[in-house]
Amino acid sequence: MPDGCVAAAALQVYCEPMVVNITAMPGLGDALEWVKHEISARVPKADLDQRDADYILEQLPGLWLLASLYFRADVRGLDRIPANGPVLMVGNHSGGNLPPDTFVFTLAFCSYFGVERPFYQLAHNLVVSMPGLGSLRKFGTVAANHDNATLALASGAALLVYPGGDYEVFRPSWERHDVDFGGRKGYVKLAREAGVPIVPIASVGGQEAALFLDRGQWLAKLLMVDKLARLKSVPILFAPPWGLTVSDFIPRLPLPTKVVIEVQEPIDAADIANADDDVINDKVLASLQGAVDRLGAERRFPVIG
Hints:
Blueprint: H1 3-23, H2 28-41, H3 53-70, E1 74-76, E2 87-91, H4 100-113, E3 119-123, H5 125-129, H6 134-138, E4 141-143, H7 146-154, E5 158-161, H8 165-169, H9 186-194, E6 198-204, E7 211-214, H10 217-223, H11 225-228, E8 236-239, E9 243-246, E10 260-263, H12 269-273, H13 277-298
Parallel strand pairs: 1-10, 2-5, 2-6, 3-4, 3-5
Antiparallel strand pairs: 6-10, 7-8, 8-9
């Protein structure tokens, strides 16, 4: 176990019972449910009309220039994505609450297929409800849940999902080339129900935008945000300009890491319909891990690429 995780592991032994005892206190359960309801009520509904093609067209040149210069964006294989119709794109996820992979791929997709093609991205409830981030909804970002995903695909849109979510995006930086959905495979059922193909999207570089030290799952339980806000991780990281930071909600400057993204071969909707979830999930993970290993081997140094 890395030295930085020893203290966290030791604390977990004592913190978990504390959480259980606190939540068992009389009357606290109702209070927690009220807080949970208030947080959920602030999450914007998936109004697909909030995506603004004119706004994207206006912002795209400047943002793509930023992505090209700052992250030295290299996106490959966009021609493997079906040219029209609904499609579920499934990626490995990196970079914390400022994920370069989502930023770069969204811009690349809109540049390649045009802003008129409907394209949505699923994100954590807190991300889409944070003040000042309304521009994300204009780019097509909606809260990550099954209903919103179904609605987007039913509209004929392309949809980008990251099954690993906060579990994967806050993994320690020394695990940066590990693809790990944390056992989540609901996306397979989503694709089967919608009758759409799955396109794996592999990326490297994003987890080098900061030095992630610990997922902080023990801290999420201690603070009870796992129950109140669906946050399974309160990460511990080192990033400019603050240095050592707990949680990733304090604005920070991502390191100018080189981001490389590669689209993999699609998995046909007919194959998904006739296979078990585990079979398709294993196929997606194998495709992503193989690509990440290959792309990672191209990198000579962290951040520099």
